[in-house]
Design goal:
Blueprint: H1 2-25, H2 32-61, H3 69-106, H4 111-138
Helix pairs in contact: 1-2, 3-4
Length: 139
């Protein structure tokens, strides 16, 4: 656990220091995006590994009282369904909303059609919330 924590802190410190160095150089470094992508990839890998090792301990710790390990995983599933659906909905609304504004500026008559597309994108988050409520009702 300490190794994972140390790895995460090291990756974050390297990323911040690299950003500060490039800020004071006043010239755009072409390799900056590549280095930041590598750092973010490593950070995501380390955090995923940490979560995989910590979930069994968290679920086991939750068994004290009336919560079983199945309930712990159910709560985790409910949280993930809402969170991932919200992230997907945010991405969809961002892309369709920007396109809708561009289309409306060229042709104001298609306002209703574009609102339908943006509303469908917002529906993704509602579906995730409904699934989350269904999971929680079974626990």
């Amino acid at each position: 656990m300490i190794i994972i924590l140390f790895s995460c802190i090291t990756i974050v410190v390297i990323t911040i220091s690299y950003g500060i160095i490039n800020l004071f150089k006043k010239e755009i470094n072409k390799d900056a995006k590549k280095v930041l992508k590598i750092n973010i990839s490593l950070f995501i890998f380390v955090m995923t590994t940490a979560i995989m090792f910590l979930i069994p301990n968290t679920v086991e710790a939750a068994t004290k009282g009336n919560i079983t390990s199945d309930n712990g995983l159910g709560y985790l599933a409910a949280a993930l369904s809402t969170g991932i659906a919200s992230l997907g909905s945010g991405y969809a609304v961002a892309s369709t909303g920007a396109s809708a504004i561009g289309a409306i500026s060229e042709e104001p008559k298609i306002l209703g059609k574009t609102l339908i597309f943006v509303g469908l994108a917002e529906g993704i988050a509602i579906y995730g919330l409904i699934i989350s409520l269904m999971i929680l009702s079974k626990l």
